[in-house]
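Continuing the batch. This is chain 6 of the set; chains 1 through 5 are on the previous pages. Same settings as before, nothing changed between runs. Recording input and output for traceability.
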Amino acid sequence: QVQLVESGGGLVQPGGSLRLSCAASGFTFSSSSMTWVRQAPGKGLEWVSTINNDGTYTHYADSVKGRFSISRDNAKSTLSLEMKRMKSEDTAVYYCVRGDVRAASQFDEADFWGTGTQVDVSS
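Output for chain 6:
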């Protein structure tokens, strides 16, 4: 069955860096766009970044543009999110999602989500 397993979350100080990974299995990873979505405490889901199936196109929310970088390794079926110059407002649970789901209206349509990894940005 389809599995998406995130890792790499943790506690980081403001201005620091963190790298998240998502290990995918159970489907043809190289055929799917992939998306990172996050949910801050007490808030709704927020789109973060999307990458197309072969990694040639990437898209970022304005809140992370210039600080976050999405990438993928199709040979290893792995999705990554490099986060730099982190801010307290980046504190959230980060989810790996199959598909191109940049609009909130699309979140319910996404068929597979990981269980999430917690990221805390605090001094």
